[in-house]
Amino acid sequence: MDIRNLTERYAVSPQIAPEHAEAIRDAGFTTVIDNRPDNEVPPELRTEALRRAIESAGLTFIANPVVGGAITMENVTAQGEAVAASKGPVLAYCASGNRSSIVWALSEAGQRPTDELIRITQRWGYNLEPFRPQIDALANSA
User: Fold this and answer.
1) How does pLDDT run across 26-65, given as a tens digit for each residue?
2) Measured in whole angstroms, how far is the alpha carbon of residue 82 from the centre of its chain?
3) pLDDT tens digits, residue range 76-107?
4) Are 23 and 53 in contact (CB under 8 A)?
């Protein structure tokens, strides 16, 4: 498991497995967001398998599948709402952590400067520069 803290309350990770649930809880997370569509993973890593493991560890589990190259405003809104509703730190995962970073940054548009959002994710190797126009547009409409 490779947890990458973007902020004190939000971290991303590449794909997790059911056996990581207790370690995620012990690391202080209260909510896990699954940003990976089921068609990308084998049955043992699909949404319901992870939901059972995460909820058995006493954590909140949110499924918000994000299709690479096809992020929707519904994805962005769901991510922002899940983070806002969480009683503590959130861990979001996908294949590499990139999509989880993108939907987070888009959901934070207008709450943090665009440069800061891009810089935060860049520390972990996620290039959100191509999303600058979308982040700016969302910030201007907030």
Assistant:
1) 999 999 999 999 999 999 999 999 999 999 999 999 999 9
2) 10
3) 999 999 999 999 999 999 999 999 999 999 99
4) no
DSSP H or E stretch at residue 78? helix 73-85
What CA–CA distance (Å, rounded) separates 61 from 122? 26
H or E element that contains 106: helix 98-108
What is the assigned CATH class of domain 4-141?
Answer: alpha beta
User: At 133, phi and psi to the nearest 5?
Assistant: -60, -40
DSSP codes, 19-71: GGHHHHHHTT--EEEE-S-GGGS-GGGSHHHHHHHHHHTT-EEEE----TT--
| Two tokens, residue 56 | 């058995």
| SS3 at position 18 | helix
In degrees, rounded to 5, the angle at the alpha carbon of residue 88 between the alpha carbons of residues 122 and 90 is 40
Single pTM value for the model = 0.94
H/E segment holding residue 103: helix 98-108
